[in-house]
What we know:
Its main location: membrane. It is found in: Cell membrane; Membrane. Belongs to the ABC-3 integral membrane protein family. It is a single chain. The protein is mainly α. The chain has a single domain (about 30-140, about 160-190, about 200-305), classed as ABC transporter involved in vitamin B12 uptake, BtuC (Orthogonal Bundle), CATH 1.10.3470.10. About 85% of the residues lie in helices and about 0% in strands. The chain is built from 14 helices and no strands. Helix 3 (about 40-65) runs antiparallel to helix 13 and helix 5 packs antiparallel against helix 11. The model is unreliable at about 1-5, about 10-30 and about 315-329 (pLDDT under 50).
Amino acid sequence: MTAASVLPFALAQSVSAAPNTSSSTLPVSGFNALWAVPEVRTALIVGSVVVIATALVGVLTVLRGQSFAGHSLTDLASVGGSAAFLLGVNQLWGFVVASIIAALGMHAIGVERLRGRDVSTGIILATGMGLTSLFLSLSTMRPQGGSASVNVLFGSLFAISPSVVPIVIALSVLCLLMLTIIWRPALFSTVAPQLAHARGVSTGATNAAFMVVLALSVALSSISVGAVLSTALLIGPASCGLMLAKRVRNAMFAACGIGLFCVWGGIVISYESYSWMHGHSWSVSFCIVALVTMCYLLSRLVSWLRGTSRRSHSRSLGLISRKAASANV
Length: 329
């Protein structure tokens, strides 16, 4: 069954299982109907686990100013995903292997050095996308290969096999454990790199470990929303959390909450769109990324309003101080 046919099939099954369920009863019976559909239940579990891991890694990624590295890894991860699809291997392993190899290679060269070499970086990324195109073209020659491009580049939470769920959970736990271990030295070397080096923090090992963590999070987000859209899931909720919260800890909670809202909301919207679109449905990856974009724009608006309020308050205090000084004179 292809990714495009999974959602209509799941909806048909849910309708036959719960004929009295309607969208107007979504808070209770509607959620039970969603949870009763195996494809939707798998999507909710995988999406929730992945977005918590990627949101927390994303916070440190944004703080370290390495969003460029995350975007580059998504382009190179698609090579592994497409190769895995061609070989008939689980795409998740292709994403993981390609992401880790690319991450360690970027660490060996130096992320900042790569960023400064626009031509070389562009050629490397273009070569990766070219290989992805080749592998996907070859995949179309295989039976059921017509959905290769959609599965690898744009993904579908509804098409994930239940057998993949334990692997996703295990990789997410591993990602979070590694993040917990390197969090303090990684944050310290980001805020005060010279002081961290003076105190004996192994910045090289810390940076390498962080790139591996980033690679795992990219692989997890790629299996959820596809390699092309995975940057949104990695950077979007984290950026929103950092704009809305004043402390890093609060930003982490906010990022997880926003990420869960986007994933669950995207799944529900995609599911419900089947009845709006008369037998068709919106892509779940599109719905998730659209909600991430909306949250990002709202977060920027809130941040701008806060900044405007502070500037206005500061000007008012300055004006009052000047009037008081003039009165004393």
